[in-house]
């Protein structure tokens, strides 16, 4: 019995944190002046949090008791946030690749100009 109380207490804490962050979980991270590596790490950390909270939400919704913290609407919000966060991760990777390719192209162009001048 005590273990069940501890688990429901743990869910309540995570639910309180979720409710505090619920309005922001779909929003992009403020990434001004941030490297692509840091931005990627922050989004993957956010995705890990969302996947964990999704699992807790799913378990809570499917418990046989009536003392649920999470609702099916919460699950939908969390699932939307997961998909949006995956899109932000893909966008970060794409931007990093484009910048890397642009840098490589510029270096090759500079190198070819220098080799024809000498």
Quick take:
The protein is mainly alpha-helical. It has helices at 2-21, 36-61, 72-117. The chain contains three helices and no strands.
Question: Mind explaining what this structure looks like?
Answer:
The chain has 118 residues and is mainly α. It has one domain (2-110). Helix content is 78%, strand content 0%. It contains three helices and no strands. It has helices at residues 2-21, 36-61, 72-117. Helix 1 packs across helix 2. The protein is rod-shaped. The chain starts with a helix and ends with a helix.
- Quick one: overall form? rod-shaped
Mean pLDDT score: 84
Order of helices and strands: HHH
Percent strand:
under 5%
Which percent bin holds the helix content?
over 70%
Can you tell me the residue ranges where pLDDT is under 50 for at least 5 consecutive residues? Answer: 1-11
Largest sheet: none
What count of helical segments does DSSP give? Answer: 3
* Terminal-residue CA separation: 82 Å
Count of β-strands:
0
Q: How many domain regions?
A: 1
Annotation keywords:
118 residues, mainly alpha, 78% helix, 0% strand, rod-shaped
Topology:
Blueprint: H1 2-21, H2 36-61, H3 72-117
């Amino acid at each position: 019995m005590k273990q069940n109380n501890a688990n429901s207490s743990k869910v309540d804490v995570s639910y309180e944190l979720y409710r505090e962050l619920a309005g922001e979980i779909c929003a992009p991270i403020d990434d001004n002046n941030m490297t692509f590596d840091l931005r990627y790490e922050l989004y993957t950390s956010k995705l890990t949090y969302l996947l964990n909270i999704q699992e807790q939400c799913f378990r809570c919704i499917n418990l046989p008791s009536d003392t649920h913290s999470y609702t099916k609407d919460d699950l939908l919000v969390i699932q939307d946030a997961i998909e949006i966060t995956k899109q932000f991760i893909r966008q970060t990777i794409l931007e990093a690749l484009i910048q890397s390719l642009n840098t490589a192209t510029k270096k090759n162009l500079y190198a070819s100009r220098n080799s024809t001048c000498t």
